[in-house]
Amino acid sequence: xxxxTDWISALAAFESxxxxxxxxxxAEELHLTASAVSHHVRKLEAQLGVAxxxxxxxxxxxxxxxxQLADAASSAxxxxxxxxxxxxxxxxxxxxxxxxxxxxxxxxxxxPRLPRFTAAHPHxxxxxxxxVALTRFEEGGPDLGIRYGQGHWPGLTAHHLMxxxxxxxxxxxxxxxxxxxxxxxxAKLPLISxxxxxxxxxxxxxxxxxxxxxxERYTFSDTTDALNGAVHGLGAVLAREQIAVPYLADxxxxxxxxxxxxxxxxxxVVYPAHRRLRPAARAFVDWVLKQPGQPA
Length: 296
Prior knowledge:
Layout: H1 8-20, H2 23-30, H3 34-48, E1 53-56, E2 59-62, H4 64-94, E3 96-100, H5 103-110, H6 114-120, E4 125-129, E5 144-149, E6 156-170, H7 183-186, E7 191-193, H8 200-206, E8 216-219, H9 223-231, E9 236-240, H10 241-249, E10 254-255, E11 261-272, H11 279-288
Parallel strand pairs: 3-4, 3-5, 7-8, 7-9
Antiparallel strand pairs: 1-2, 5-11, 6-9, 6-10, 6-11
Helix pairs in contact: 1-2, 1-3, 1-4, 2-3, 5-10
Keywords: DNA-binding, Transcription, Transcription regulation
InterPro entries: LysR-type_TF_proteobact-type, LysR_HTH_N, LysR_subst-bd, WH-like_DNA-bd_sf, WH_DNA-bd_sf
GO biological process, one term: DNA-templated transcription
C-alpha cells in the first residue's frame, strides 16, 4: 500500500494520541481540537479497516493493531527527525566560520566593524577565539586567523591586511602630563610596557632621545590590558595605531609628543594552504581584507 500524502496528518495525530493515550493531550501538543484528533484517527481506522483504539469511559487504549502501527509510526518519525536535525546541523555548520585572532585587535578594530559583515551576510555565524597561544589549524579547528607578524608561517596562506605604527599615549589626567612638551619629556613619566618585540627603547631611539633613564613600571602580557592601565593613570604606553583609535576618539587617552614609529610587523589573514576555504569563510576573508580602508 502506498503512503498517500493525505495520510501524513492522520498518522501524526495517531502517533501523538498513541504516545499520550489521550486525545485531548495529543490535541494540545498538535495545536488541534480533540475532535479533530479523533477525526484523523477514525479516518485512519476506516482506511485500514481495523480498530486502532479501544474507547471507554476513562479514555482510550491501543488495540494490538494500534500498538503495531504506533511502534512503526514512532520509529519512522524519530528517524525522520534525526535526518532533518542532521540536515539542519550540516547547513548551520556550512554557514559557521571559526576565526582565531588577537584579543586587542578584536576588541578595538574587528568588533566595531562586524555589524557591517552581519548586514551583508546575515546567514553566516561567527565563532571568534582570542586565545593568546598560536592556534593549530587542525581538522575541526579554526577556518582562518588574523595574526601579527612578518607574513610568513609554514603551511599557511597569508594575505596582508594592514600595517601598524607605535606612538606614546596617556590618560589626560596622568600626573605630570602637562609638563610633556617634546619626546624627551615622555621619559619623565612612569611607563607601561607589553610583550611586543618593539618597545620603549626602540621608540626613544626613533625619537632621537639618548641617555634617558626609563621608568618601565608596569608590564602587561596583553596589549588591551596595557592600554587600560594607561586609561586608569598608571603611566604612558606605546599604542598601536590600529588599536588606539577608540581610546583616542572618546578621550580616554591622548597622544603624546613624538614620532609615529612604523612597526616591523603587520596584520595578516591566514588559513591552511592545503585546505580550500568553504564559501562562508571565503566571504569573511573577502570582506575583512576590504576593511582597512573603511572607517569603523
